[in-house]
Amino acid sequence: MMAINAQPHFGYVTDNAVLMTSLLAWAVAQLLKIVSWAVIRGKLNFRRLVEPGGMPSSHSAFVTALAASIGLQEGFDSTLFALAAVFALIVMYDAAGVRRAAGKQARVLNAIVEDLNRRELHPERLRELLGHTPIEVVAGALLGIVVAVWRL
């Protein structure tokens, strides 16, 4: 019986054009968050690399690059593209809907906490920038498609 080398091969992962294109779209979106923050607020904030929310949506860029890359490689009529497209729509709906609503709720709760703090309570502030505006989601989606078409 021949032994099979079960060690993962990093080269297999880095040779995956669809995965590398998706990761590139995500990285470009994350870097653009720093740029857009600097343009709007006049200062660099490298924490934007790991914080949720902001322009453009890196989640949208990631999943649309994935779907577009699969469509370009496997065909836009493939079952795999359909799966990736539905996955992308769910992620983008969540980013602009559920997570954005949670951010709005956090803003209201933080206002209540500030009011309570005047009475010497000091609970932790909630993160308000959780989701994305529809424009941020669309910008991220367009970025993902552009990166996929450019790379593939």
Helix tally equals 6
- Tally of strands: 0
Helix content: 55-70%
Spans of at least 5 consecutive residues with low confidence: none
Secondary-structure-based class equals mainly alpha
As a whole number of angstroms, the C-alpha radius of gyration is 20 Å
Principal-axis shape equals elongated
Order of helices and strands: HHHHHH
In terms of DSSP E residues, the strand content is under 5%
The largest sheet, given as strand count, sense and whether it forms a barrel, is: none
- Mean pLDDT equals 80
How far is the N terminus from the C terminus? Answer: 41 Å
What does this structure look like?
This protein is an all-alpha fold. The protein has helices at residues 10-14, 17-41, 58-74, 79-96, 98-117, 134-151. α2 packs antiparallel against α3 and α4 (79-96) packs parallel to α5 (98-117).
List keywords for this structure.
152 residues, mainly alpha, 6 helices, single chain
How does the SSE layout of this entry go?
Blueprint: H1 10-14, H2 17-41, H3 58-74, H4 79-96, H5 98-117, H6 134-151
Helix pairs in contact: 2-3, 2-6, 3-4, 3-6, 4-5
Task: Characterize this entry briefly.
The protein has 152 residues and is mostly helical. The chain contains six helices and no strands.
